[in-house]
Amino acid sequence: VIDDLGAILVIAFFYTDTISWYNLMASLGIFVLLLIFNRAKVRNLIPYIIGGIFMWYFMLQSGVHATITGVLLAFALPFGNGNKRSTSYIMQHFLHRPVTYFILPVFALANTAIVIDLNWQNALTQDYTLGILLGLLIGKPVGIFCFSYLSAYFKLGSLPEATTWKSIFGVSFLGGIGFTMSIFISLLAFNDLEHINNSKLMILIASVLAGIVGYIALKLVLKNSKSKTISSF
Fold this sequence. Notes:
The chain is mainly α. α1 runs parallel beside α8 and α2 runs antiparallel to α3. The radius of gyration is 21 Å and the shape is globular. The two termini are 39 Å apart. The model has no long low-confidence stretch (mean pLDDT 86).
């Protein structure tokens, strides 16, 4: 989730050509109003939904990618103690099924469509496709592992019980499985179909490789852990 939020921020800051400050200020003004509702302990979802719709409209008109609206609205929703009666939980529970079973599948079907020609292997040696490969297969695992380690080192978090840094290392590779946001950014970054198609192909290849490496790493770690547990008995 945090990694997707980071991708959305990248979209907002680096894929914006021109900005309409009037519309941007209107959108941010609504965001501030929703924060005031939050502080005033307004728990009814209706003001947040209506405000979120208007905030999305003004953000879209501002030139900043409207996906940032979802992030802002999430921060504005009252969380409380996170139980089932909290506003954010109710919203999440309401959106879970339509997002999982409709929105994401439609996005996948609409944006994957990869054309594989006879010289498809040439696409794998381009600078931008190699950048995608290194970003997903090395950049994301290194980033996940290092930030996890630093958060534990500075006492911002701790390892779950019976978890080792070797298992975190294996899980970090699973974080290299990219799809929705990776393809989304590719669609924004490139204008011609060749670059977009090659990017999609490399995203899928890198995701498969990251999944395989993560699976093997975790299998070895868990196997060794199981062997040690048996030997201790």
